[in-house]
Amino acid sequence: MHARRHAFLLAGGILVVLIFSLSKFLQTNFSLPSLTSRSKPSKHIFNPVSSISWDNYLNFTRELDFGNSTALFNSIRAALRQSASDIHPLGVSYFPAVIPRGTLMYHAGSKIPTSFEWLAMDHEFSYSFGLRLPSYGRKSLQKHRDDPGRGPGKGKIPGGKNSTHKNPDGPPRGPPRGPPGLVGSQKMLTYRATRDLNKFLYLDGASAAKTETGEMDTQELLSNVIGQKLNLSSDGEDGGMQERTFAARICEWGKPFGLDGIIRVEVGFEVVLCNFSSPAVELVSALEMVKPNEHLGLPPPTNISKENGWPLDDDGNLVEDKLTDDQMTLLDQEDLWQQVLENFYSVKGFNWLRAGAVHDSGERRIQLDYRHMVTGINRTIINPDPNNRRLLNGQITWDTQLKIVEDLEQAVSLGFDASKSTDWQIAFDEIASKFAPMLKMLSVTLNGTDTSSEDIAIKATAITLNFCLRFKQKEGIVNRYGSDKEFAVYQYVKPLKELVTNSDYLIWSASVNVARKIVDTIYNVNELLLPIVRTHVGEKGATSVEAAEAISKAQRDIDDLIENLGWIELHYRCEQACGLDEICYTPSWGPSPMGMTQPGTTNAGAGTHYDANRQRLVINSDLKCLSLNDLMGNSNRF
Ligand SMILES: *[C@@H]1O[C@H](CO)[C@@H](O)[C@H](O)[C@H]1NC(C)=O
Ligand SMILES: *[C@@H]1O[C@H](CO)[C@@H](O)[C@H](O)[C@H]1NC(C)=O
Ligand SMILES: *[C@@H]1O[C@H](CO)[C@@H](O)[C@H](O)[C@H]1NC(C)=O
Ligand SMILES: *[C@@H]1O[C@H](CO)[C@@H](O)[C@H](O)[C@H]1NC(C)=O
Ligand SMILES: *[C@@H]1O[C@H](CO)[C@@H](O)[C@H](O)[C@H]1NC(C)=O
Ligand SMILES: *[C@@H]1O[C@H](CO)[C@@H](O)[C@H](O)[C@H]1NC(C)=O
Ligand SMILES: *[C@@H]1O[C@H](CO)[C@@H](O)[C@H](O)[C@H]1NC(C)=O
Ligand SMILES: *[C@@H]1O[C@H](CO)[C@@H](O)[C@H](O)[C@H]1NC(C)=O
Ligand SMILES: *[C@@H]1O[C@H](CO)[C@@H](O)[C@H](O)[C@H]1NC(C)=O
Q1: What are the counts of helices (DSSP H) followed by strands (DSSP E) for the chain?
Q2: Left (φ > 0), alpha (ψ -120 to 50) or beta: where does 262 sit?
Q3: Which of ligand 2's atoms lies nearest the C-alpha of 56?
Q4: Best mutation site among 66, 378, 391, 399 for ligand 7 pocket (most ligand atoms within 8 Å of CB)
Q5: Could you tell me if residue 192 is left (phi over 0), alpha (psi between -120 and 50 degrees) or otherwise beta?
Q6: Which end of the chain, N or C, is more open, meaning fewer C-beta atoms within 10 Å of its C-beta?
Q7: Of 14, 26, 122, which Cα lies nearest the Cα of 479?
Q8: 408 to each of 219, 376, 405, how far by Cα in Å?
Q9: pLDDT band for position 635 (50/70/90)?
Q10: How many angstroms separate the alpha carbon of residue 409 from the centre of ligand 9?
């Protein structure tokens, strides 16, 4: 009863406001500025591209179906974002990237690299990979069993049992755990770009995961085509160094075009720099890494072996009751040291995770030039579901692969300049940030089971009518300017800059198709439900409708749209606002302080589950706040 009255007042209020604002609006002549007539007229002649405006923009879109449009839209939104790249791990595109002059990058390793090598964008990342960690006491007997970051220890094995994607040597690759006491010195190197490094290819998705589920397909495609083009033998490519082979080939291929290297995501973004001898980078710091145990004045760990008189059984396990008093005292002492060091190690891993999470909103030091983007989207069948597709899908023809590489050669030869490119991520974020809440509110409203159909229709149309009337011209007024649906779409997709390349048109067309589908759906829901409201307020001549049916149709349309858009914010959310001592944790694929989770297995790591339809692990939709305690294994939440 109360709800109905409230709804009636609400609907009445909406109408009053509407009539008031419309009458006010009409006191002045409605005149939209023509978007083209304002710009310099000469541009019209010399650059017809700039003539995209509200009344002709549909003439400039190119054919692209909705599935390809969402695939591209979502790829661009996830680009250079840590969390999004893990949630949508299967990238199918090559993004032209620039690392600006002055940018610092990091490498931890035993020597100063001379060939191609890895650089991390975050020093926490390199440090965590590079620092060798001796174990003391009883812990030292569990050699090599820990993962790189000493997570809660759920028995995840880096590289997987049969993986051919083992870590190539050199940080920030493989977990550098030497045997206790026998670890060589490690250097922590800082490099600086001495000029804009404007010939990088950024590979999207979880492109540094060491997997065989498609995350590395952009690298593999390049490597395969290069192998043929350069007549490279396939010798020595097994043996678990696949990603090193990819890197070697890509750098070899890129030499004539001046390719700087590739950029990938792990926990944090990392660069494969093709030539460390190039004057484009300079070393600005080379530290001999200080081991925390030595810094605390501790002696090296005791070598617990049979030869040294320790009671070990045939499996190498300690036989506790055969320890001498001296051995017991020594072990207890070392166990205490180990406990102290564990705290240090945990924070080290947590820092690395945080450095990754900092880039959930973007790795903004790297810039993208979308004008020369090369993608598999609209070249082959690409499932819009970014957890269930591959670039090397078994159907992509060799010719298509050759064409992709040819397009990359042309693009890299040009060199990139992000300042000349539209920042499509900004444009698409704006679209998604505005529509996502509206669609969610509609979905929740239409799903209201505890209220009447009229109530639902009133609340839902309060949302849709507010949208549609923003673009509505009053009946009977001559209007030669934009209005209604097509104009609504234009408001959201007006290009920020001139469209110049095919890639620009492809990307822009994707946004037109995405925005059009949303606007269509909102208009449809509005038209579907408005008659219910009209009847309710007793408007004469209002059609009587099957209210419940209309509402469930509207609900289906909105929920299908939400599903098909595949926007991360509509499906994934952190359980709560995390504290400053926590991070909103998105699991990643590949080496991590939380262990290595291989998507191709059923061995779900923290925050992931096996999806039988997609036959792989995927990330849970409720993301959790992670604290140091969780990393130290002191809680069972992960
Ligand atoms: C509206 O336009 C008409 C015709 O152009 C003009 O006569 C009238 O003065 C305009 N009214 C206002 C308020 O500008
Ligand atoms: C857009 O295309 C339509 C139909 O092809 C044509 O009638 C119209 O003149 C075009 N508009 C512009 C501004 O080019
Ligand atoms: C691992 O590889 C071996 C040899 O190729 C094969 O026999 C075995 O079945 C594989 N194991 C798994 C779990 O895939
Ligand atoms: C590769 O081999 C083919 C045929 O054997 C030859 O035509 C081509 O020039 C070779 N390319 C390179 C880069 O060596
Ligand atoms: C790296 O750059 C240096 C200096 O420009 C050049 O002499 C060398 O040939 C390059 N090495 C490779 C492998 O491209
Ligand atoms: C431990 O001692 C054994 C036997 O003396 C030796 O073979 C082994 O290399 C030593 N390990 C380390 C890490 O020093
Ligand atoms: C995308 O484009 C490709 C190539 O034109 C086409 O084969 C495919 O059906 C389109 N749609 C999807 C969802 O892949
Ligand atoms: C609709 O509401 C029901 C009951 O509250 C809930 O179980 C269901 O998940 C909701 N559906 C959607 C799409 O939100
Ligand atoms: C997508 O592919 C189709 C079929 O090859 C082509 O006609 C269309 O121009 C492509 N769309 C874009 C935006 O490149």
Answers
A1: 16, 15
A2: beta
A3: 13
A4: 378
A5: beta
A6: N
A7: 26
A8: 13, 12, 5
A9: low
A10: 21
Whose Cα sits closest to atom 2 in ligand 9?
378
Question: What ligand has the least distance to the C-alpha of 60?
Answer: 2
Residue 76 lies in a domain: no
Ligand nearest to C-alpha 477: 1
Under DSSP, is residue 286 helix (H, G, I), strand (E, B) or coil?
Answer: strand
- Asked if residue 385 lies in contact with residue 566, where contact means CB atoms within 8 angstroms, the answer is yes
Please spell the DSSP secondary structure of 202-250, one letter per residue. EEEESTTS--SSSTTHHHHHHHHHHHHHTT---TT--SS-HHHHHHHHH
CA of 246 to the centre of ligand 6 (A): 37
Nearest CA to ligand 4 atom 6: 231
| pTM recorded for the entire structure | 0.84
| Residue 59 Cα: closest atom of ligand 2 | 1
For residue 509 and ligand 9, the question of a CB distance below 6 A is answered with yes
CA 232–ligand 4 middle distance (angstroms): 10
Instruction: Return the amino acid letter for 150.
Output: R
In a domain, 540, yes or no: no
Number of compact structural domains in the chain: 1
**Residue 576 falls inside a structural domain:** no
Contact 446, 456 (CB under 8 A): yes
Contact 427, 247 (CB under 8 A): no
What's the mean pLDDT when you consider all of the chain?
A: 86
| Residue 207 domain flag | yes
The pLDDT score that the predictor gives to residue 18 is 45
**Cis check: omega of the bond before 591, within 30 degrees of 0:** no
State which residues form the domain around 103.
97-361
Whether the pLDDT of residue 240 is over 50: the answer is yes
* More confident site: 555 or 315: 555
Question: What is residue 6's predicted lDDT score, i.e. its pLDDT?
Answer: 53
C-alpha distances in Å from residue 107, one per residue of 98, 178, 184, 285: 19, 18, 16, 10
* Ligand located closest to 552 CA: 8
